[in-house]
């Protein structure tokens, strides 16, 4: 496809995503938060509309849009509701790892399913955060197979996804990633977390009791586990930056609409300096996050290092989205504090991303390390 | 200036005359100057609409009679009309912008190779030229359109823009037309069921309770329905409320929705964008309630109240007998 | 079975204003498929899936209309034709219906032509019946439901002014579609990419051997002489005061 056509195709994707968001997502934003799940049929409609295949290469039945276009699509979506965008973020970052590390047999088996089934990536264990050195999930080689046993928690799309990449330790204490799916004997789901935000996105535990997988279910090589985990983090953070920019787009819209509509006595709120300062802060934070994730996505598409900028997008974006959410709440006053208005759940939604895919502290550590080693 | 006639198509909805046709007779007479106004009536022998039409004062009624007109296709009607237009060469030919009129007129237009302007809001003559005022972009923009070189000048005109006025004309002459009914062999009308549609009741209603974005709460909607039932009126809505599944496009007033002409219109929580007010110009008395004292709707209203729509509705329900 | 869907590109919003100085229309450059035409595309795609047919999009307009044809292809249509040239520009409904009907004849063996009930910008709904007349086929306007029968007929349910009507037509036929008929599907991301590989042919008046007297401005009997913003009629309003109860009382006394 020519560059000009690809640009037009990207534009068409954004139109389509924004139609989908306006018609299907934005109207159920409050409902998703209140009922703590996707309304019936929404996820199925997303599948039917081919949203699971945005990044998936065309040879596997996907659309094959690049990561920059995909991230932009997630921003548009998240401005309507962040939960579905985070579900897709978890799926797309996992597809990226198959594309980079998967052997042909593994990819031919699982990637065609990715048009209608969610793929998930799981590192965290009950024993401790995302720190991979303390992994207790074991992978034992038996002839041509591996036997996987262990517990993974806090898995984005846990229960919704049918295929899971899991980080495990081999007998010689090397880290490796294996692919298991929910239909395998020994696989079961644990509890779904009762999180305070992103109420549509399921986060749950999986339990693996002596799951036997053939050798080709090894993603990459034994010993590459840590690298793949870091790669998955970096890919996730680019998209989370986009989701956060989307949440801020929503917050900005709420603040601007309210400031235009509402009057303090006879003066519209937007004419008050105190409101003007706040709206400028919100707009700047949104714009900065947008620039950061777009830069990270562009570097990734160009094959350049992007992990540090991706960490910045998520670190800055998550902190800002919570902070400007609070500013927006303040503009709305009592209404902002009401559960009849969406702003309080936007703060809770954004708050998740100060923790997921590496906490702010962990990201800032990585950013500092990168700066010192320059 | 010539004495070529102005024709008005009399649409029959089964056995009833479409009110827009009568409105068009009145309008045609107002703008005609010395041009004769003809009512064009295609009716089965079981009907006699002439007496009613005569009440609205056309100079002539051109009658095409055939029992097959009781259920004729657009092509059959257009074919018959083409025959009489070619015989009499009228100056202009006006149709109601109803679904029937908007289906038939363009088919006839193509047969006659002339111009047709859709959904006009006003008409005037400049000499022999009919100036047709047509809204576009959802009534945001008005255009003046003319058809200078071809005849007849055809237009469909939006219902309820003009008021039908009875001016009985004892001189009205009924002329029987010569034509041949050509059955369309490739199309059969299987059945026609009369509907008490919300469209018809909204545009014909004498009392309309209209709800806007500021009156979209379930309780307000319920109260509005109760009041409408009590007053024998109907509920209409603005564009944003048609997104609510309990309302349909048929209940929309204004911008490419319905034009209403009730005796009493009560606007609740409607700000009054031009796209809406275009649809209420022929309401006799307009009452508007809005929390915003600067809402433009008040400029189009006879009575205004700055306050809560729900409370106002409760007051009306309690006090209206 | 070949199904042609005639579509129009319209501005993405009707939020159009008149520039007070130049008196030109100020409108968004963003073009989208006329929303009612999406219902027609959806209807065509459903019939195609029943009959193993082919859905062909047809539009007339400038080169930029390619975008809405691509959007229709991304919804799942098989191919598209755009009638585009300077000579075709400035056409009214009559001068639009003529080239469209000639193109349908050139495409050949078309059994069903679908239209949206009207465009949301010009709001005429005239092109469907005009094309039906030129093709000399029966028309089913304002259809709410359509079904094909086994003997090559189409049953349509029309919504008229105060009635519902069921009609049966022999194919070929032309149908204009109300939005109540269906919920148009979204273009999928994959189909968006694939739409660029589908055939999109541009024809000019030469390809269709059109009568130059019947196309473009020259072939349009109507002329727009003036464009302006609607004037809002002002009334003298009596404001009601006090509590809602009091205001209602005051109102009922005046009425």
UniProtKB/TrEMBL annotation, chain B:
PANTHER family, alphabetized: ELECTRON TRANSFER FLAVOPROTEIN ALPHA (PTHR43153), ELECTRON TRANSFER FLAVOPROTEIN SUBUNIT ALPHA, MITOCHONDRIAL (PTHR43153:SF1)
Statement: the UniProt record of this protein carries the keyword Nucleus: no
Pfam families membership: ETF, ETF_alpha
Gene Ontology BP annotations: fatty acid beta-oxidation using acyl-CoA dehydrogenase
Swiss-Prot/TrEMBL keywords: FAD, Flavoprotein
Alphabetized SUPFAM superfamilies for the sequence: Adenine nucleotide alpha hydrolases-like, DHS-like NAD/FAD-binding domain
Family, per entry: Belongs to the ETF alpha-subunit/FixB family.
Residues covered by the Electron transfer flavoprotein alpha/beta-subunit N-terminal domain: 6-199
Cofactors: FAD
Highest taxon in the source lineage: Bacteria
Name of the protein in its database record: Electron transfer flavoprotein subunit alpha/FixB family protein
Organism: Levilactobacillus bambusae
SMART domains in the record: ETF (SM00893)
Binding site for FAD: 213, 238-239, 252-256, 290
GO MF: electron transfer activity; flavin adenine dinucleotide binding
TrEMBL record, chain C:
Protein name: Electron transfer flavoprotein small subunit
One Pfam entry name: ETF
Domain Electron transfer flavoprotein alpha/beta-subunit N-terminal: 22-212
Superkingdom to which the source organism belongs: Bacteria
Annotated PANTHER family: ELECTRON TRANSFER FLAVOPROTEIN BETA-SUBUNIT, PROTEIN FIXA
CDD domains tied to this protein: ETF_beta
InterPro entries according to UniProt: ETF_a/b_N, ETF_b, ETF_beta_N, Rossmann-like_a/b/a_fold
Molecular function in Gene Ontology: electron transfer activity
Organism this protein belongs to: Levilactobacillus bambusae
